[in-house]
Write a structure and sequence with these properties.
- 31% of the residues lie in helices and 33% in strands.
- The chain is of the alpha+beta class and 147 residues long.
- Strands 2-3-1-4 form a 4-stranded antiparallel β-sheet, covered by helices on one side.
- Strand 2 (41-57) and strand 3 (60-73) form a beta hairpin.
């Protein structure tokens, strides 16, 4: 069996907003347990709160957005996605290889290490990832220069 490189992954997933708080916590715990049982390690877990969906999914117009960073070998990701999407409480999810320089960090957390499984409040999470915010700021600066 070939050895797979351990990489940092970013997983954005959306939970059904009609769930009770205990069920939401159960989904989050299940995601973390899924990663650790497959040999991965959870690095951070952020709550981005209730947000509108771009289009209806399973007759829902809103979802509870969660952002999860984890390290795992490459062969783990497909099994993780399959197991996570088999939970009908998860509406959508996407897993990508995270670029360390583009990792989201809430304001005031620039130097601090996030504890495993730590969750932050929705107020701490911006509407768009830091990478997109930087692009918006640079676009605004270019527009000001043109004026």
């Amino acid at each position: 069996m070939p050895k797979y490189e351990v990489r940092l992954y970013e997983c954005m997933y959306i939970i059904d907003p009609t769930l009770e708080e205990a069920e939401v916590e159960d989904v989050q715990r299940g995601m973390e347990e899924n990663i650790t049982s497959l040999g991965g390690e959870v690095k951070a877990h952020y709550d981005w709160g209730r947000r509108p969906l771009m289009f209806r999914i399973r007759r829902r117009t809103e979802g509870l957005y969660k952002l999860l960073y984890f390290e795992a070998p490459g062969n783990v990701v497909e099994e993780f996605k399959h197991t996570a999407m088999s939970d009908e409480r998860v509406i959508r999810m996407m897993v990508v290889v995270a670029q360390p320089e583009a990792i989201y960090r809430p304001p005031g957390e620039e130097e601090e290490e996030v504890e495993e499984g730590e969750e932050l409040s929705p107020e701490a999470a911006p509407a768009v990832p830091a990478q997109a915010e930087a692009q918006v700021e640079s676009d605004e600066a270019e527009e000001e220069e043109e004026d």
